[in-house]
Amino acid sequence: GVIYLTFDDGPNEGTTNIILDKLKEENIKATFFVTNNGPDELIKRAYDEGHTIALHTATHVYQQVYSSVDNYYKDLNSVSQRVKKITGEESKIIRFPGGSSNTISKKYSKGLMTFLVKDVVAKGYHYFDWTIDSTDAMSKSTTEDIYNNTVKYLVPNKVNVILMHDTKKTTMEAITNIIRYAKDNNYEFKRITYETPMVAHKVNN
Ligand code: ZN
Fold first, then answer.
1. What is the whole-number distance in angstroms between the Cα of residue 100 and the centre of ligand 1?
2. pLDDT in tens, 149-164
3. Packing angle of the helix pair 16-26, 169-184 (nearest 10 deg)
């Protein structure tokens, strides 16, 4: 099986650095879906250490990002420019806040996701959802929960895209044990590239 570790919502002072340390110790490459938060140096470091820098949106504020097609692209372009300034490369790999399957966008713009999933691809982006939610975004999730909710859903001989957040201390604490479990069970770790086949949920708006 293949595992893509994906980290959303960063970079974040105090957690992203430690996650990068642990990935380095385990010699694993991952994918970071970044926002306009956190220091530039952490994006630079992740990029220099061979991880994929992908785009999540600048603000991640649903009512703004999903208020219209124009506002979605305004937000995406803002983080895109940030990444280009730091890495010198334009990233065409994206993840929608809440995933392409989100229902929250319904509140702000009916049918928006149905339009965007096609339009981003027409504009040359590849978007990635996930196959396993580590549940680390839930405030009640402990380090143990994140470990258990990840390893129990791993599917051998398949592609496993794991949703995580490098803004979370609990994720930072769970990551080494998840990697070791996966290594013990012969999973291979990869980072998402433009050539990686898209992993997409069913659209709900
Ligand atoms: Zn997010």
1. 11
2. 999 999 999 999 999 9
3. 10
Radius of gyration of the chain, Cα coordinates, nearest whole angstrom: 16
Helix (H, G, I), strand (E, B) or coil at 137: coil
Question: In sequence order, what are the residues at sequence separation of 6 or more whose Cβ sits closer than 8 angstroms to the Cβ of residue 133?
Answer: 149, 163
Encoded tokens for 184: 């013990």
Q: What is the pTM of this model?
A: 0.98
- Measured in Å, residue 139 CA sits from the centre of ligand 1 at 14
Query: Chain centroid to CA 77: how far?
Result: 17
**Cα 176–chain centre separation:** 18
CA of 9 to the centre of ligand 1 (A): 5
* Sequence letter at residue 153: Y
Determine the distance separating the centroid of ligand 1 and the alpha carbon of 29, expressed in angstroms. Answer: 20
Distances (CA, A) of 39 to 59, 167, 170: 15, 13, 21
What is the torsion angle, in degrees rounded to the nearest 10, for the CA atoms of residue 40, residue 121, residue 134 and residue 196? -90
How many Å lie between the centroid of ligand 1 and the Cα of residue 60?
A: 7
- Angstrom CA distances, 29 to 3, 10, 51, 79, 96, stand at 10, 16, 5, 22, 21
- How far, in Å, from the CA of 177 to the mean position of ligand 1? 23
pLDDT tens track for 158-185: 999 999 999 999 999 999 999 999 999 9
